[in-house]
Amino acid sequence: MKRPLVIASLLITAIVFIYLLISFDNDIYVPPKEPDGSFTECIGVVSKKELKILYSGDTVNVIYLVPKEKKRSKAKYIECYLEEDDDELPNIGEEVLVAGKAYCFKPPRNPGEFDSRLYYSTLKIAYRIKNAHITARNGKKDILREKLCILRYRLEGMLDNCLAEEDSAVMKAMLLGDRAFMDEEIKELYKNSGIVHILAVSGLHISILGMGLYKFLKRLKLQNVVCSVLPILFMYLYGEMCGISSSSFRAIGMFVLRLTAPLIGRTYDLLSALALTEMLLIIDQPLYLFNSGFLFSFGAVIGITVVKPRLEEMILLILNLKVRISRNLVIQGLLSGISVVLVTLPVYLEFYYTYPIYSLITNIIVIPLMGLLLVCGVLSCAAGGLLGAGLVVRFLNIPGIAVHYILLLYKYLCGFQNSIPGNILYLGNKEGYRIVIYYVMLGIALFLIKKDKEKHDRERTWQIIRALIIPAALFILTINIPGGLKITAIDVGQGDGIVISTGCSNILIDGGSSSNDKVGKYSLIPFLSYEGIGVLDAVIVSHEDEDHISGILEIMDGMEKGGIRIKTLVLPDVAAATRESNYHKLEKRAKELKIPVKYISKGEKFELKVKTGFMSEKLEFTCLNPTKKMETEGANAYSGVLHMRYGSFTALFTGDVEKEGEEQLKQTISQNTEKYGEITLLKVAHHGSAYTTDEEFLEMTKPKLAVISCGVNNSYGHPHAELLERLEQYGTKIYRTDELGAVSISVSRKGEVRIKSTLIPGQ
Q: Beta 77-82 vs 125-137: how paired, if at all?
């Protein structure tokens, strides 16, 4: 049997994956029943420690404890953020008693949001203790690992000595695996450009540092055992110092096997080595199969070692070339990039829902410079240690200057790439069956290419047909099939954010929060990306309160960096005296970004097409509030109200309408009850306030379904009990974002309604 380890790896991976699908919730760490912020004490051994930057910008020491009594078998660590006045850090290997406030990692409340519970479960971290204070310690330590930790801190200090702050932060990530000091904008820039992989300690580090040392020792003509053992020991210590992630474990493991094989009289096989390291990782932590770093790391190696040679053969066969193209570095770079993309594209769509299409070209420039950058980074670190700090040192540090200009080139390349229209493809999350079909078709295509080579099949028609299997697989994976009308109330905390998708157009009604910071970055944009929405045909603002616009402003800021595009901004057409600072802020920002601004008032209508497969129907919106040039003291009174009709399905989106606005709305409905009365769906006004949606209004509308957008345990007490009682009296089924997370309502062409929430009630 050829490569038995590869076969075993595939079988074990399949078994583990099926097991996780069946018992996924059992393998995710389930938090304790105590509420967040409850006091806790924990005795454990310090496993590792690091520095982290808080949202406030303050630096805090973080230690990871292995609990002495492992009551939580599926979790290994407890992450402890120490108080600032804890000057003396415990040693690695020391047993300590920590007291503080415990906080659990939560599942996402919206599709597309970062799943912190799953992520930290893959890292075996059970929960987090904030404001942790060490009340007792035994003074023991793991000498080796403590020395490695001290060495990492010293090396980081050397980088600070010889490099500018931004350059030093990037090199700390590349060389030492410490991303804590990196600017968030730089991380986002690298991610949106498809080069974030350069920050991981992986195979490139091994080839430069490990193989560099191995070749150096070989030149000294030392014994083979010495030439192999010393680099292995060095790379193990280096990996331990940086924190052994899945990608670094894979790279170091394969390096160890490569140098060990000749010593025991065996031939090194790359795929067998890859299979062995993969098995060791998933046996230790099955949840790695849901970790993006793990999947990207192994996928990239498979792409380069398995897919790339087949693609090269396919090109030679189709073009009927007898010469190899291995000497053309540009073509080889493109083939490597395409091969990695073919393997990892489903991973991109599973975790990021987008793909930076021009990253293939950017990586052709970035990757060849990485070797030089890492070498210069190591030399700069040495210079910083020998010469100390200061501007003179930086001026004399030639490797440091090279680091600066290479990173500057990366920054300009990424900035230029993000400025090109269409850089980011918003493909959205894909169903599991499509991913399976894609990989099966890719495997068939590679198998047929190999058979063509073995049989010397020169019938080009068949070669071209076989080559088209790969584009067909990509089409099946990436195509977005119109699914009809879908309305989603995003959980933005205490605020509003409603997305309406029709298969042809996408509209956002409000988007802000008074309780969640950066709601655009962490909730709205991830949800839109998950849905494959890269363009908002219209953003409709009901009124200018912060809890309805803060996320919209973030989306606008992202447009300058190649993010989601807004075609039209729609504002309520109220009197100039009524428009306050936020209203003018929206107008000004739209003008800067060249977004057309339209103003809407009572009686105005617009239509959209709803597309389901190849069928399309009409969706009609009518504005019921405010009256044209309405003048009022409070923004809630002029809040925009939209009535929507799709066949027999009707909906009313009420913003925060109250007072004279609600009175005017009731008058309008009463004058035309056939059209506006007895609605299917009501977006309850003002987050479920008792002072809106009165009995008279409910008597007119008799909503079958009601969605309330409000924050968990919000200070206003929304939704108020009186309001809930009124809705229940009319038999209205209530869906609350504070209890269910995002709530999605899908409407079929026949008017059938399906409702889905992100969270299970009570979760």
A: parallel
Nearest to 705 by CA among 665, 740, 667, 666: 740
The angle subtended at Cα 515 by Cα 514 and Cα 519, nearest 5°, is 80
Q: Are 159 and 172 in contact (CB under 8 A)?
A: yes
pTM for the structure as a whole:
0.92
CA angle 58, 61, 285 (to 5 degrees): 120
Rounded to whole angstroms, the Cα distance separating 111 from 135 reads 41
Q: What is the pLDDT of residues 615-632, one digit of tens each?
A: 788 999 999 999 999 999
Q: Which among 278, 288, 19, 49 has a CA at the least distance from the CA of 148? A: 49
Exposed, middle or buried: residue 425 (CB in 10 Å: 0-12, 13-18, 19+)?
middle
**Domain extents for the chain?**
1-27+183-290, 31-141, 432-478, 485-757
Handedness of CA 452, 456, 461, 464 (dihedral sign): positive
| Cis, bond preceding 719 (omega within 30 deg of 0) | yes
How many Å apart are CA 610 and CA 277, to the nearest integer? 49
By C-alpha distance, which of 586, 666, 577 is closest to 629? 577
22-74 residue pLDDT tens: 876 655 665 555 667 889 898 999 999 998 888 777 888 999 999 887 544 55
Contact 691, 719 (CB under 8 A): no
pLDDT, mean over the chain:
89
Sequence letter at residue 698? L
Place of tokens 């060389």: 175
Written as six digits, the tokens of 139 are: 């003074």
Overall CATH class of domain 31-141? mainly beta
CATH class of 485-757: alpha beta
Q: CA 490, CA 524: separation in Å to the nearest integer?
A: 7
31-141 and 485-757: identical CATH topology: no
Asked if pLDDT for residue 452 goes beyond 70, the answer is: no
CB 652 within 8 A of CB 641: yes
